[in-house]
Amino acid sequence: MNKNSGILKFFGAVLLGSLGGVLACQIILPWLAGLPFFENISWMKNGREGVTVINRNEKVILTEDQGIEDAIGRAKGAVAGVISQRTQKTTGGILETPETLAQGTGIFISSDGLLAVSDLFVPENAQRTMVLFGGKQLQATLARRDEKNGLVLLKVEEKNLPVLPFFENELKLGERVFLMDAKSADIFVNMGFVESSKPQPVIFFQTQKTTGAPIFNIKGEIVGLGLLQDSGGQMAVVPARIIQELIK
Asked: 112 and 159 in contact (C-beta within 8 Å)?
């Protein structure tokens, strides 16, 4: 009898504890969370709203990954390949096949066809510059050259082009960004992070495959245009505020 009595007491205690837990979660905690003293405590607020947070960190990671995918999707529509060519022989006459002098990626900064690109891809001796966008090759004209900052502004005769907002705040150390290379049919994306923000932003990219490409943050805002990438993976950036000055 004593042994059976002990087992009954054990299961009785478990049952009462379970009922107490349910009572606390469903009635007592929501009631307390409604009082002014407890209403700003996050876990009490979750109890009032019937929310159970299993793994808060996992939720944040999934949200950030989805944000990056969305930002990349928007950026793909605003970048274009740039090819600068020589079309004439040095001795005179037209080349049968134009000679490619430089090839890179630019970013549309106005819906009526203004494209910002590193001057690495539009050398002064180029005789023709083509913009590759939407499966088309568009003839581009030189709108402005900023030798101080290494930028060129091109113009193509297109309307209603997709344009992304400029990032207008200061980059933070460790902030995640990505560059997009569209100089070929296959668009290449490289993730990186801000290594230094002053006096000129410096971003580290582990993969060393491109240079002079547009750079975006995970919100899809234009951070700037990359310059030459060194052997250590570091790339200086012409910030968005300087690119904006091209169209003022």
From this structure: yes
> Which domains does the chain show, CATH number per domain?
2-53 (no CATH), 75-155 (2.40.10.10), 176-245 (2.40.10.10)
Q: Could you read off the pLDDT of 27-83 as tens digits, one per residue?
A: 555 555 566 655 555 545 555 544 444 444 444 444 566 788 899 999 999 999 999
* Three-state DSSP state, 13: helix
How many residues are given for the chain? 248
- Euclidean distance between CA atoms 55 and 49, whole angstroms: 17
Q: Which residue, 202, 212, 205, is CA-closest to 182?
A: 212
Neighbours of 38 (CB within 10 A): 16
Q: Quick one: CA dihedral 94, 98, 103, 109, positive or negative?
A: positive
* Burial of 190 per CB tally in 10 Å (0-12, 13-18, 19+): buried
Residues 6+ apart with CB under 8 A from 190: 178, 179, 181, 205, 206, 207, 209, 210
Tens digits of residue pLDDT in 181-236: 888 777 888 888 888 877 777 888 866 566 788 999 999 999 999 877 676 778 88
CB atoms within 10 A of CB 120: 18
Here the tokens at position 24 are: 């606390």
Note whether 102 and 123 are within 8 A (CB): yes
- C-alpha 128/C-alpha 132 separation (Å) is 13
